[in-house]
TrEMBL record:
It comes from Nitrosopumilus maritimus (strain SCM1). It comes from the Archaea. This is Endoribonuclease L-PSP. Residues 3-146 form the Endoribonuclease L-PSP/chorismate mutase-like domain. Coiled coil: none annotated. InterPro entries: Endoribo_LPSP/chorism_mut-like, RutC-like_sf. Pfam families: YjgF_endoribonc.
C-alpha cells in the first residue's frame, strides 16, 4: 500500500545513499529501525547547500523533502518493503541556518508531510526541528528517523 502511494505521488525512490563517514545507514534492534541522518543527496551530489534564512525557506523545504525521500530509500533497503512500516516513531530535523533564523519547524514540515502522505496514520510521529551552525557537506538539512517495523 505504501509503495503504491509513492507511485501515486510521482516519487521514485533512489538507490539508498552510502554513508559519508564511519557508520552504517541503519541499525535494526527488535522491531525498531534507526535510520542515520540523511542529507539531500540526489544523483550522488548534495542538491541543496548553504545557510537557511527567511529568504530561501522554500528551497530549504525542498531540501527537507529530499532528506525524507532518502529516509524512505533506506527503510526500503533495510526492510525490503515500505509496507513493513507499522509506525514512523520520530524524525529529528537539523537545519543549517543563520543565527537569527527561527522557522526550523516550517523547514522540516515537508518531511513530516511526506511521511503522513505515504503511511497515513502510521506516518504521524514525534519530532524535533532545530538549527545547526553547520551540517555535513554544507547541506541545508539533515534528518534521521526511528521507524517501527512489523516482524
Amino acid at each position: 500500500m505504501s509503495e503504491a502511494k509513492l507511485k501515486e505521488l510521482g516519487i521514485e525512490l533512489p538507490e539508498a545513499p552510502i554513508p559519508a563517514g564511519n557508520y552504517i545507514p541503519a541499525v535494526k534492534t527488535g522491531n525498531l529501525l534507526f535510520i542515520s541522518g540523511q542529507i539531500p543527496l540526489e544523483n550522488g551530489k548534495v542538491a541543496y547547500t548553504g545557510k537557511v534564512s527567511d529568504d530561501n525557506l522554500e528551497t530549504a523545504q525542498k531540501s527537507a523533502k529530499s532528506c525524507a525521500i532518502n529516509i524512505l530509500a533506506q527503510i526500503k533497503r533495510e526492510a525490503g518493503s515500505l509496507d513493513k512500516v507499522t509506525k514512523i516513531v520520530r524524525l529529528s530535523g537539523f537545519v543549517n541556518s543563520v543565527p537569527e533564523f527561527t522557522q526550523h519547524p516550517k523547514v522540516i514540515n515537508p518531511a513530516s508531510d511526506l511521511m503522513f502522505e505515504v503511511f497515513g496514520e502510521k506516518g504521524k510521529h514525534a519530532r524535533i526541528a532545530l538549527g545547526a551552525g553547520s551540517l555535513p557537506l554544507d547541506s541545508m538539512t539533515e534528518i534521521d528517523a526511528i521507524v517501527e517495523l512489523s516482524e
